[in-house]
Amino acid sequence: MNPINRAAAAALAALAVAAPTAPTATAAPAYKCASSTRDIDDTSYDGPWPDNWQITVKTCAARSGGTVYAYAEVKWDGATFHPVDDPTIFDGAKLRLQIKESREGTDPVAFERDFPELEARLEDSTSSRQRTGTYRTPTISHSAGPAALGDSVLFLDWQGDGRGYQRHDYTASPTV
Description:
Blueprint: H1 3-18, E1 32-40, E2 53-64, E3 67-78, E4 90-101, E5 109-115, H2 118-123, E6 131-136, E7 140-143, E8 148-158, E9 166-169
Antiparallel strand pairs: 1-2, 2-3, 3-6, 3-7, 4-5, 4-8, 8-9
């Protein structure tokens, strides 16, 4: 090897040792999910047409270090007797997504957020009055202890039934 090539090789070797290494990409946390389905009666209607809504909620949670992430996905198949895109089915509808500390007994809520935009999605329909759809919440995150989980509660307030919000609990995610 001639002296110029030797000097160039030595300089490249020195530069390689001194250069900072590129940060390694961290893998996205692996989500653990659980889902359950509820058959929910439209308490504002007692006519001859089927009025139950089948609503499934899948709740997912993941951990990265001391932070827990959670999201939920809601799927529904609603009653078809309402008019097309009827904005008066509910006085309110929201999904409450929670991050809970997993402990023996009742799991205390560390963080929660309501997603009221679910109401407009539930009241939307196709031109043939089919009310099926999905809604995925944005991801929430919070610092949590060594064992935590995601949990979801659906609140429905049927228009005109006088009962206010009715609570529907769904299966929590596995512990992360």
